[in-house]
Amino acid sequence: MSKHREIKVGTRFLGDQHPVFIIAEIGINHNGSVEIAKKLIEGAKNAGCDAVKFQKRTPEICVPKDQWNIERDTPWGRMTYIDYRHKVEFGEKEYSELDNFCKKLNIIWFASCWDIPSVDFIEKFNPPLYKTSSASLTDFDLQMRHKKLKKPVMISTGMSTMEEINSAVENFGFENLMIAHATSTYPCINEELNLRMILTLKNLFPKTVIGYSGHETGLAPTWAAVSLGASFVERHITLDRAMWGTDQAASVELSGFNRLVRNIRDIETALGDGIKKVYNSELGARKKLRKII
After folding, report:
1. Residue 116 confidence class, pLDDT cut points 50, 70, 90
2. Domain range holding 174?
3. Which of 11, 70, 193, 258 has a CA between 20 and 30 Å from the CA of residue 63?
4. Are the C-beta atoms of 250 and 236 separated by less than 8 Å?
């Protein structure tokens, strides 16, 4: 094992000695539209993101049965909640189209799978990694299905206690594990972001790649997460924060993603290696201003 914390995702390495892996979380912000999804993928690629991520659910498994027939207003009219959940789920035809689109643009795509059949569905497309949502942190059966694939898995830690995080890590094991600090509020106020948890997780799990999944409205906390040592960051992406959908308000629009990525790259360059040195650019000032005794 490397002396540095790192993990291989496809042909890429993630970890302390590597560039921050930047993920644009599309989730269900496509509202069931392949064309919107393509615009978000293209926007993420143009911004310089390394990957886009979707969410995949089997509605009959993930939606409690007592909520199936509750009616709600949607962009497609009034419908039951179970019908709405199906409306925003892509099937094999849509994912095949998006898979080809991502390959054409040379950008990684993967998914958070909320149930075992969804894992089996997404695995048809052979993504290089997966993520489990904060809601799934205590779903050990789902974790075991992921573990059998022997691929990197990000586990998100929102709305979880340290005991639950430790249990999930113990259950999954350290091989192929990545941990994302998160707070499961959409959007999340700064007072509840608790970014120093990134340092806590890095200290607790010294060989595990640690990152950040943010749901705040601004960009500064994500930049701070990079400064604290997050090896990967994930933010929701949207065409318009005013669009219909539960995650839109906690998302970043395309212009914001350009700033997000650009400043992350500036920050990681500025952080340097922590070894003090005198730079050539300082030599003139040193000769002129330093009193030699």
Report:
1. very high
2. 6-289
3. 193
4. yes
Helix (H) or strand (E) holding 51: strand 51-56
Query: What's the CATH code of the domain at 206?
Result: 3.20.20.70
Please give the tally of structural domains in the chain. Answer: 1
Q: What are the residue ranges of helices labelled H in 64-115?
A: 81-87, 92-105
Q: What confidence score (pLDDT) does residue 240 get?
A: 87
Of residues 34, 12, 30, 31, the one with CA closest to residue 21: 12
Which H or E element spans position 151?
Answer: none
Q: Name residues whose C-beta falls within 8 Å of residue 157's C-beta, 6 or more positions apart in sequence.
A: 134, 137, 165, 179, 180, 181, 182, 201
- Tabulate helix, strand, coil % of the chain (nearest 5): 40, 20, 35
Name the pTM for this structure: 0.94
Query: For residue 24, what is the DSSP state?
Result: E
Helix, coil or strand: residue 226: helix
Number of residues that this document lists for the chain: 293
Average of per-residue pLDDT across 157-168 = 98
- Is residue 81 domain-resident? yes
Under 8 Å between Cβ of 204 and 212: no
Distance, CA of 154 to CA of 137 (rounded, Å):
10
> Average per-residue pLDDT in the chain?
94
SS3 at position 62: helix
Whether the predicted pLDDT of 150 surpasses 60: yes
Chain center to CA of 243: 21
What's the pLDDT at 2?
47
Residue 293 pLDDT greater than 60, yes or no: no
Domain contains 235:
yes
What pLDDT digit, counting tens, does each position of 118-137 carry? 999 999 999 999 999 999 99
